Amino acid sequence: MAARQLLTGRLALVTGGGSGIGRAVCQALAHEGAKVVVADRNENAARSTLDTLLQVNQNKHVMKLVDVSQSQSVHNLFSSISHQLSQVPDIVVNSAGITQDALISDLTEQMFDDVLLVNLKGTFLITQAACKLMVSEKIQDGSLINISSIVGKVGNIGQCNYAASKAGVVGLTKSVAKEVAKYGIRCNAIMPGFIDTPMIGTIPEKVIEYFKKQTPLARQGKPEDVAEACLFLASPKSSYITGEVIEVTGGIFM
Ligand code: NAI
Predict the structure, then answer these.
(1) 243 CB burial (10 A radius; 0-12, 13-18, 19+)
(2) pTM, full prediction
(3) Per-residue pLDDT tens digits for 4-52
(4) Ligand 1: residues whose CB is within 6 Å?
(5) SUPFAM superfamilies annotated for this entry (predicted)?
(6) What is the CATH number of domain 11-246?
(7) Residues that are catalytic
(8) ipTM summary value
C-alpha cells in the first residue's frame, strides 16, 4: 500500500507563489498531497508555477491574482477561493515580499512605506482574513507560516525598511500565535538567509561570494531549503510548535 502523503485533503494558500521561495513552497506542499492556491500579483509568474504543479499531480490546484497590500484585493481573494473551492485554506504561507534598498540617508518615505505595505501590512491582511475564516469554520490544525528574513534579526546595510518590515513580521507571528492557539491554529515564521531567487538578482556576485564564505555550510541557500522547513511547519509533524522562528541560513548569524 502506498504511504499516505503528509498533507492529503489540505488546502494551502501561498502568496508570492509565482516566484522563488513561494514557488518552491507550492511545489513542496503539492508533492505532499495538498491542493494549492498560487496567489501572486504577477499573472504570468503565477501561471508558470501552476503549470509546474499540474505536472506534480491532478489535485485541481488553482491560481489567483492578488495584491496582498490592498485589503479589497485580499477580501476578493478569500471570497473567490470560497466560491470556487468550497473549502477554507488550512495552510497559509505569506511569501509575497519586495525590497527597495538604499542607505538611510537616501531612503525616501515612499520607499519605506512601499516595503512596509507589502511585507508587513500584506502579511497582516492575509493572516487576519485567514484567521477569521479558520475560526468561524472551526478548522482544526490550521497552520500559518510567515516568511520573515534573517535581516529582521541582524539588520543589513541599505535595508532599514526591509529589516524593519521583517522584524515586524516576527512580532506579528508571535502575537497571532498566542491569540489563535486556543482554536488549535499554529503560527510560525521562517527567517531565510541568502537564497538564490530573482529577489537577490541585483546583488553583486562579489557580495554573494563574501556571504558564502561567511556561511558555515559554505553554500548559498536554495528555495527548496526554505520550502522543506515550510513543509515541516505546515504538517502535523510540527503539531506542538507555535510562535517559533526557524532560521534557514546555512548557519550564518547563528
Ligand atoms: P521573489 O521576488 O522571487 O518572489 C516574490 C513574489 O512575491 C513575486 O512573485 C512577486 O510577484 C510577489 N509579490 C510581490 N509583491 C506582491 C504583492 N503586493 N502582492 C502579491 N504578490 C506580490 O522573492 P523571493 O526571494 O522568493 O522572496 C520570497 C519571500 O522570502 C519574501 O518575503 C522575501 O522577503 C523573503 N526572503 C527572501 C530571501 C532571499 O534571499 N531570496 C531572504 C530572506 C527572506
Answers:
(1) middle
(2) 0.98
(3) 799 999 999 999 999 999 999 999 999 999 999 999 999 999 999 999 9
(4) 15-16, 18-22, 40-42, 45, 66-69, 95-98, 118, 122, 147, 149, 192, 194-195, 197-200
(5) NAD(P)-binding Rossmann-fold domains
(6) 3.40.50.720
(7) 162
(8) 0.99
